[in-house]
Amino acid sequence: MKVLIVEDNPQIIETISDYLSLDGATVDCAYHGEGAISLLEHEQYDVIVMDIMMPKLNGIHTVEYLRQELRCDIPILFLTAKNNLSEKIAAFQAGGDDYLVKPFALEELHLRLQALANRGPRQDIGILKFADISIDPRTEQVTRANSHIKLSRIQFLILQVLMKKAPALISKQELITAVWGENAPSSDALRSHVYGLRNAIDKDFPYSRLETIHGKGYRLKA
User: Fold this and answer.
1) Does 40 or 122 have the greater pLDDT score?
2) What is the tens place of the pLDDT at every residue in 82-108?
3) How many helices (H) and strands (E) does the chain have?
4) Can you list the alpha helix ranges (DSSP code H) found in the chain?
């Protein structure tokens, strides 16, 4: 088992690291969220131990970044000194898989980490959901109300941008820049692709998800 410990207390890191190493685990350490992100950009682990209260970048914000930006699918166990429901909810909503309150028994920590490692990588990371629409950026699969929808490459990219910002309004220029970059087509090309996207995701349903705000842009509505 390869473990990353993210904790700002050197004594806690040393204690956990020594205990896990005696059982054969390989352990790396980071003392704050920024250090963890730097490691995870090029290293792979079976499980992560993440403290919540840390300098520079706390554990909640670190995990949100890992899940949403790096699409990190490694199971994560949160450590915290607080035992209140609101913090537990925040930890799981950020993308945590388990939660352990300090002080804790090292044997329990080890058992929980082993269970997470045995479960394997998360399968839901990176999937975007809004209302009844779901898209997987890795496979480019799109569903609405569990029905598969076939899109062209450009239509998929447009939908992906709208999903990331939903239900916010996205201007025409924002969409063009996000999809085509510097090789921007005419606004008529965007209008044509949006028309095709709307037909694909709304045609067989009683209400439309894709809304055009004339003169301003587009958005997905709940």
Assistant:
1) 40
2) 888 888 888 998 899 999 999 999 999
3) 8, 12
4) 10-22, 33-40, 59-68, 85-94, 106-119, 153-165, 172-180, 187-202
| Structure-block tokens of residue 37 | 């992100």
Euclidean distance between CA atoms 16 and 5, whole angstroms: 8
| Edge-first strand listing for the sheet containing 133-136 | 128-130, 133-136, 141-144, 147-149
What's the pTM?
Answer: 0.64
The residue type of 67 is R
Distance from C-alpha of 181 to C-alpha of 185, rounded to nearest angstrom: 10
| Strand 26-30 with 47-51, pairing | unpaired
pLDDT digits (tens, 9 = 90+) for 51-63: 999 988 999 999 9
Contact of 83 with 75, CB cutoff 8 Å:
no
